[in-house]
Each structure stands twice: as C-alpha cells, then as structure tokens.
Structure to design on (475 residues):
C-alpha cells in the first residue's frame, strides 16, 4: 500500500533568528557585559605551581625541567604554558551561557600561518590540544590577556598595549556581528588568506614593517618536509635516519635496548595502521604511497613539553620525496573538570574533531589513534604533518602597530571559529554595537596580567628554593 508522505510543518525562519537574538539580548541582564572586567583570585585559589606539578605527574620526568625552564624565560612564556592555571581561574568568571567549540588555549602564539590543502597560505587558530565545548568568553579572555602580557613583555607603553587588546576584542565583536546575518555556508567557507591580509596590512604598516612580514611569509612557504629533511636527517648505510640531538630529539632506536627494536618496529607499524583508519578514503591512498623509515621523540612548544611527541619520517616515490609526520600525545583538556568530559573516548579524536570544526582549512593528513607506548601504557595521539608552511608570529620583533594589527587578525579568526560551532546570532546580540564589552575585556586583561606576573614569580621562587628542577640552557 502506498504511504502518504507527511509534510514537515513550516518554520518561520525569521522568527527563529529573532528568538535567538532575543536570547542574546536577555543574557545581558543575567551577565552584564561590564561584568567581564571582573577578576580577583578566588578564596582558597590553588597554588599555581601545584597545578603545574599536577600536570607533570603524567609527563616524562626527564623533560619536565625543560618545560619549567621555558616557562621561566618571561611572564609571556609562563602564560603560554599556564593554560591549566587560567582554565581554573576562568571557571570562576561570568559568562553569558552560550557555548562554542572553544580552543581552550587561544593565546596569540597559537594563531599562525599554514598551508591549506589548496596550497595557499592562510592564517587561523593552529593549536587544539585543549579544545572542548565551553563558554566563548574564555577564549576571548585568554586571547586578550595574551596581548596585554605580550605588550608588557615588549616594554610597550600601557596605552600602546591597551590599544592592541582593544583591537582584538573589538574585532571579535564586530566580526561576530558581521557573521550573524550570513548564511551558514558563507560562514563555513570564510577564511583569511595571506594575500588579503597583506593587502590590509599595507594600508597601516611602513615599508620596513612590510618587508619583515613578507620575509616571515617567505619562510613559511619554505617550511615543508624537504626543509625538515635537510635539517633533521643524515644518511646511515645509505638509508635516511633522524639525527640524534638529546634530549630535544631522540631517535626511537636510542630509547630501547637492541633486543627490543623489532618489537618496537612492529608496534610502529600497528600504530600507523590504526592512524590510517582515521583518514578519509582518498587520503588513505595518499598515505599508503609512503613507507615508514624512522621515528624519534621530539620536545615541542612550552606547555606541551613532557608529553610524548614523535616525529615520523616517511619516504615517497624517491629520495627527494620525504614526508614528516608528528604524532602528539593528547591528554584530557584542561577545561574538562570545569565543563564536563569530552563526548569522544579518545582525546586524539577530540583534538581532531575540534580542529575540523574550528579551522577554515585543515591538514588533509590530520588523524588520530590509540597507541601502546614503550612504557607499556595506552595513550591517545593525534597525527598531522610536521611542517606544512607553519609559522607563528615573532612576538619578540613586533612593533606596537604590528601588535595592534595582529590583534585584529586574531580577533577575526577566533570569531569565525566560534561562529561555526556556536549560536552566532545570540552571541552577536549579546555583544552589541557599543564598546562596553571591549572595554571590560581590556580591564580584565590588565588585572589578569598582574596575576600572571605573580604566578610567574611563584614559579621562579619554586625554582630558587629547589622545589622544582629547572633546565634553562635548551631552546
């Protein structure tokens, strides 16, 4: 018997959008925009050094002193490694009730240039180790505070520094207002190509500044697997092998006894097979065209030091076709204890899914796997290309005007990432057209930068007293 099709009741889309905007406006009563200026440490705030020591419990003990050494380079370097501390603090701050796929560690050095699949350079968020659904304000506050702390690190005047912070907050707000009326696909396709960025930058930067930016972009174009091959590989008995540079780069063969190497090689092959299953079909075919050659443990970043990170050397059609991959351990997000556990059982999958959702264009070889380590423990990893046009801003050489421009760039990129996963209409309505939110975020950033300096001093005191061991002569 033929079945009668049932029609979906019509929905008044304009009314639905209006209701979302009304929800954003109503949230102002519960959480005034001016309330985001608030910051003072909570009663009984946990010792920041103890937070870092807690993270160290699951890390490679021989590498933890390097992490502390890198964090003690400056208050800004400390801030880069202190995502867990700030997550603890942000959980006590006001929020409007709207969640997005948050980066979780949205400081200015976690935005950068990389090559999209169409090989054009784009600028976007580029670190997702802590990604998890969370209040959108947390990312904005971490980003803004990073500009305040970076400005102080560069000895900019308070006025110059605040201008950059306001630029980041204002661009986030105004971009969200622009994204709100856009179609869903238009938001999804939006991205910031370097060519358009250079065009905008040319209107405010002088010739010397433009030359520096163009030089940095040229370096990004050259940062690929061939460049990594030249720097990280030497030939041994006619076969390419990763150079040993302990403790920053240690080949896997040097981490196990001779009689364990065959077992290690079997585990690596099994690991690659698991990773392969996380790729799209055509990308699996691409990956299958490479053969595994060598693998080494690598120290990366600031906050990530001590987690397991491996670089894998693969070879393609000939000796001039290398592929360097990075398999990085994924632990629970620092946000998890404040917003709830991830829906994904594997933290590598959590990172990858978050990156796909937030980034305008992601590495085609981005994937994840569970792996059985040489320490006999299961761990989660995500995998991507090691160098693929990746380049972060050089904070040490930024002029005040450059920090201001970069603030606008990061504000736009973060707003676009949040607009893809959150209720952009409600968030835009909450933010509004005035500068109340921008000024509040700038006030928060100044107050939190003061707190960051106190926390940095606490870590320095812990090093002086011998409470923690520090290795400072490694870069």
């Amino acid at each position: 018997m033929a079945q009668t099709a049932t029609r979906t009741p019509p929905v008044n889309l304009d009314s639905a959008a209006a209701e979302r905007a009304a929800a954003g406006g109503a949230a102002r009563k519960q959480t005034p925009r001016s309330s985001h200026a608030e910051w003072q440490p909570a009663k009984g705030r946990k010792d920041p050094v103890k937070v870092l020591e807690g993270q160290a419990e699951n890390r490679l003990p021989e590498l933890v002193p390097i992490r502390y050494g890198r964090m003690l380079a400056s208050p800004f370097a400390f801030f880069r490694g202190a995502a867990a501390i700030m997550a603890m603090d942000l959980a006590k701050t006001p929020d409007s009730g709207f969640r997005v796929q948050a980066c979780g560690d949205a400081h200015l050095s976690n935005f950068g240039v990389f090559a999209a699949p169409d090989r054009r350079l784009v600028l976007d968020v580029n670190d997702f180790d802590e990604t998890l659904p969370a209040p959108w304000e947390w990312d904005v506050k971490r980003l803004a505070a990073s500009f305040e702390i970076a400005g102080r690190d560069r000895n900019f005047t308070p006025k110059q520094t605040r201008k950059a912070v306001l630029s980041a907050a204002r661009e986030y707000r105004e971009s969200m207002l622009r994204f709100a009326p856009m179609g869903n696909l238009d938001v999804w396709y939006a991205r910031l190509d370097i060519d358009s960025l250079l065009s905008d930058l040319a209107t405010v930067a002088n010739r010397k500044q433009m030359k520096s930016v163009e030089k940095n972009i040229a370096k990004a174009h050259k940062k690929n697997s061939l460049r990594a091959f030249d720097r990280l590989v030497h030939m041994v008995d006619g076969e390419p092998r990763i150079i040993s540079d302990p403790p920053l780069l240690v080949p896997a063969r040097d981490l196990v006894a001779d009689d364990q190497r065959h077992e290690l090689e079997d585990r690596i092959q099994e690991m690659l097979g698991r990773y392969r299953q996380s790729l799209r079909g055509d990308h699996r075919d691409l990956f299958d065209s490479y053969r595994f050659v060598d693998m080494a443990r690598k120290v990366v970043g600031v906050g990530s030091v001590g987690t397991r990170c491996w670089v894998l050397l693969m070879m393609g059609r000939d000796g001039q076709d290398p592929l360097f991959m990075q398999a990085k351990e994924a632990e629970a997000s620092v946000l998890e204890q404040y917003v709830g556990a991830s829906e994904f059982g594997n933290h590598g999958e959590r990172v990858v899914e978050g990156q796909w959702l937030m980034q305008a264009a992601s590495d085609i070889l981005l994937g994840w796997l569970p792996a059985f380590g040489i320490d006999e423990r299961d761990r989660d990893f995500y995998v991507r290309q090691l160098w693929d046009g990746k380049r972060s801003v050089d904070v040490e050489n930024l002029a005040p005007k450059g920090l201001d421009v970069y603030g606008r760039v990061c504000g736009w990129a973060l707003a676009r990432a949040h607009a893809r996963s959150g209720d952009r209409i409600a968030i835009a309505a909450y933010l509004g057209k005035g500068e109340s939110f921008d000024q509040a975020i700038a006030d928060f950033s100044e107050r939190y930068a003061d707190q960051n300096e106190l926390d940095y001093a606490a870590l320095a005191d812990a090093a002086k007293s011998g409470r923690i061991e520090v290795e400072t002569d490694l870069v």
Remarks:
- The CA atoms of residues 23 and 104 lie 25 Å apart.
- Confidence is low (pLDDT under 50) at residues 1-5.
